Amino acid sequence: MNAEQKLTLKDFSSDQEVRWCPGCGDYAILKTIQKLMPNLGVPKEKTVFISGIGCSSRFPYYMETYGFHTIHGRAPAIASGVKLANPELDVWVVTGDGDGLSIGGNHLLHALRRNINLQILLFNNEIYGLTKGQYSPTSQVGTMSPSTPNGSVDLPLRPCTFAIGAGARFVARSIDTEAKHLTSVLERAHGHKGASFVEIYQNCPVYNDGIFDYIKDKKTAAESRLILEHGKALTFGDDDQKGIRLDPRNMQLDVVTIGENGVEEDHILVHDETNKVMAQMLADLKGPDFPEPLGVLYCNPTEPYEIGVYAQRNEVRKSLGSPDINALLRSGHTWNVEK
Amino acid sequence: MSVVDKLVSQELEGNTVRDVVVRFAGDSGDGMQLTGSNFTEATAIYGNDLATFPDFPAEIRAPAGATFGVSAFQIYFGSEDVTTAGDEVDVLVAMNPAALITNLSDLVYGGLIIVDDGSFTDKNLVRAGYSSNPLDDGSLDPYRLISIEIGKQVLEAVKPFGLSHKFALRCKNMWTLGLVMWLFDRSRDSTIDGLRSKFSKKPEIAEANVAALNAGHSYGETAELPSGVEVYKVPKAHVQPGLYRNTTGTEALAFGLLAGGQLAELPLMFASYPITPASNLLHALSSQKQFDVVTFQAEDEIAAACAAIGGSFAGSLGVTSSSGPGISLKGEAISLACATELPLVIVNTQRGGPSTGLPTKTEQSDLNQALFGRHADTSLPIIAAASCVDCFDVAIEAVRLATKFTTPVILLSDGYIANASEPWRVPDFDEYESFPVQFETDAENFTPAKRDPETLARVWAKPGTPGLEHRIGGIEKSFETGDISYDPENHQKMTDVRKAKIDQIANYIPDQQVSLGREVGALAVVGWGSTFGAIHQAVKRCRADGLEVSHIHARYMWPYPKNFEQLLNGFEQVLVPEMNVGQFVEVIRSRFLIDAKRLNKVSGQPFKIREIEKAIKSLLESST
């Protein structure tokens, strides 16, 4: 294929029939990613999608790239092996809230803190879809499901809070059907060197329909979304008159209205995506009391793991001999037995 | 038979004995493993054949003087072929009462005991469980005792180096080593060289240890020792000429994996998680970065297996390593590698189990796990190493099978051969036949389901290759296209072809040889893994007594060489000694319908020669 030829969405679509339920948020995400891929400048053959198990994990089958649909929760571990074996590959991990945060929580944690250069996309629908609707570790308290017919009683975790806590150097959030916003977030994630983590609010129309309506609904969006932009004030609301302020008395964020109770514009926090403390506080904001941040919460790159591994190997090799098995076998103490 | 009695019975000239077993025992912090390995090296250089058995506790630093903290190192050396660490101990070095009380029962009557008199304090005696001091209550009368205040001797010897009392006393093991080296006429040169290079940045420590070593040696020369205790000569063994080194099983396994990678022309992606006694393989490979190997200490056993599989998908050879409990965790991932037909080498250095069991002791109880320990129909090749040296060739063979047949391969080693060491006539790597992997590059009519019509191996197309973009995964795939398929007939076909691929590996492995004895006879002793040495010696002794017995040692635990069944059928009886409750014997019984008999031991210790000898004799007697 001519390298100059511009690839299109079609080039990244495999011949496999997409088999998610009608109306599933995964369709929108798939379309956005297939559309994004040609713009990233990475050849198809160098792109690898790796997934675990769950609805979202069918994703690789639909991408005309290299792909590996693996086992439940283990995608970050398998992807780590792929990236470490060949750092030239562009490796994406697609996971869900059950796959990535329940059975695979440990692998996700370590892939993030190890900072291996993967784009990890977590489709959060707050439910187990493929196993028919049990509550997940991100389900809200009281979620009625086949395994919790009287409502779930355990507290959910928040994926971005988890990721920042795990030591991720890039953490962002977007929404399945917001193609433009999702594209910009994914572009940033792809450009980030090191592990990047993107939580995508994803609707499951069958088992958990409408749980993100409060933030997806255009009518309430202005009040429920806090759009993050580095260096811009954390304002929201119909006319951007509301904002997020740090209350120094209790080290908490609160919602204020500019012009009310003596609040002025410069009382509003300015988003600094390199500030981990701010990122952690923002990641914790939850509706309906707060608007929920969308965009890049935290971006503070450092050397990716695989770069360190190969750099160290190259350095150490200077003092080690050549890769000669016969020399290795004869290293250390040897002695000759004469005839 | 004591050393002294051996002198009489072996009827050799002067103070010459054919073979000797020496055991060094002390606190886990006494440096007994180091002492033993130095003595081993000197013995190998001397020209004896030898085998060793390091036996150490799970506790890194148990309280001083505790019986559960005793660490021992046994070496058997002699002028004839030595394949086990020996049954009875001729010379016991006991650095404290706990070492004496826990090891005395293995010492032959008349055997020699060397003790550090100074450590037999009231406190240490009580801690070891002695009600009176064995050094003077007469209980050691059946033995020859050399009781020396080693601490005092050492302090005197290292005085010029100005070490603290604590550091000075740490040289006790070298002093003792010097004495034992004197006793068997070993050269101290290799130990001295080793100390000077190990402590090159702390010359005073190096020289203090050297001084202690020399002082121990001089003590032997000058002190008046009990009658009959003098320098013993153990004639050199008749070994094949060539260049030799010592190797542990772990070292040989690491070298074999690197060698296998070169023969396959593949980089290695070694992913592991620390577990005793398998961790040393991770350490060994991590320090060989001049080779094309990436080592990865994963967050857990599952991740280690998965990262290795990811490495294989990306075009390296994935290797993961653990011991039984860790292999359990890897089970699901291994089945993924079976389903996706990716090459993978899984090393299991078996230990005493179940669960945490006896982490530092040996056992062969994971054969069933290797054969059956996964969900669904997931047949895969299993090979077992018979000795430290054998680990090299077995590792190469594991790489060959994994890459030639695109399959996971389980390599079974165990704690005994992993830690023990033996002399190795270093092979010439240039004589090994290479088996370069051919990655798919042809985009014409490519499907990920493509197979080699002969080996049935699935095509290996690595990411980065233009035009071969494809998806694999754990869901059943179409035999024709590699796409997802839930078709009932296709699943039957895929299951059959995966099984057939493994079964027909029998066509690509050598016939089973008989290690010792004829190819037919009254009894075949069939072993596998690290029991090789003990079986070999037992069969040898029985044959010398005129018994019609042969030793067959299996390397291929699945599938079996084509002649395996026929070979076993040539014997009236089959005996299977194993360090488990009977796993291989059940395979032989069920697969080949042979009424094989069992001999089992699960004490955490290797078989003694006489245990197998006794079983052979009793089986042959009962059948006549």
| Strand order of the biggest β-sheet of chain B | 9-8-10-11-13-12-18
Give the terminus-to-terminus CA distance of chain A.
Answer: 64 Å
Give the helix tally of chain A: 11
Q: Helical percent range of chain B?
A: 25-40%
Biggest interface pair, residues each? A-B, 60 and 71 residues
Shape estimate of chain A = globular
Any low-confidence stretches of chain B, pLDDT <50, length ≥5?
7-12
Describe this structure in words.
The complex is a heterodimer of chains A (339) and B (624). Chain A starts with 24 loop residues before the first helix and ends with a strand. Chain A is built from eleven helices and twelve strands. With 339 residues, chain A is α/β, with parallel strands linked by helices. In chain A, helix 6 (179-191) links the parallel strand 5 and strand 6 (196-201). The mean pLDDT of chain A is 96. An eight-stranded mixed sheet of chain A has the order 2-1-3-4-6-5-11-7, sandwiched between helices. In chain A, strands 8-9-10 form a three-stranded antiparallel sheet. Chain A is globular. Chain A has helices at 25-40, 75-85, 97-103, 105-114, 159-166, 179-191, 213-216, 218-224, 276-284, 305-319, 325-329, and strands at 47-51, 66-69, 90-96, 118-124, 170-175, 196-201, 225-227, 235-236, 242-247, 252-257, 292-299, 334-337. In chain B, 55% of the residues are buried. Chain B starts with a helix and ends with a helix. In chain B, 37% of the residues lie in helices and 20% in strands. In chain B, the strands form four sheets. A seven-stranded mixed sheet of chain B has the order 9-8-10-11-13-12-18, with helices on both faces. By secondary structure, chain B is α/β, with parallel strands linked by helices. In chain B, helix 2 (32-46) runs parallel beside helix 7, helix 5 packs across helix 9 and helix 12 (301-313) packs parallel to helix 13 (324-340). The longest helix of chain B is centred in the middle third of the chain and has 20 residues, at 203-222. Classes of the chains: A alpha/beta (339), B alpha/beta (624). At the A-B interface, strand 2, helix 2, helix 4, helix 10 and helix 11 of A face helix 2, strand 7, helix 10, helix 12 and helix 13 of B.
